[in-house]
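Appendix B, record 7
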Amino acid sequence: MKAKKKKKNLWDFINKIFLFQKLTAIQELKLLDALNGFFEEQDSESLRHSMFSTLFAQIPDKERSDILAKLVSMAIGLKNKRLLECAAVWMQVKLHCCS
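Structure tokens (predicted):
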């Protein structure tokens, strides 16, 4: 039951990002923690990369790019290799398509 609630909360936060609603500092921290946990716990490499690409495929606003920067910083601090790998692949794709 707790896992379902955690997933629902994660999707609620993700919807706020996609709807460009301003997050409070506490909501932002909870979002970063939930995303970090998702990427750390997810065994499926393809699902991790798909989720990361879906979340950050387009970075149209400062808020989403700020979330991305904080998420990567958190991943470095917590040594979340899976999340860092997603970020590295995402940056390689962005660099390749934009150069």
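Remarks on this record: Residues 76 and 84 are 7 Å apart (CA to CA). The mean pLDDT is 82.
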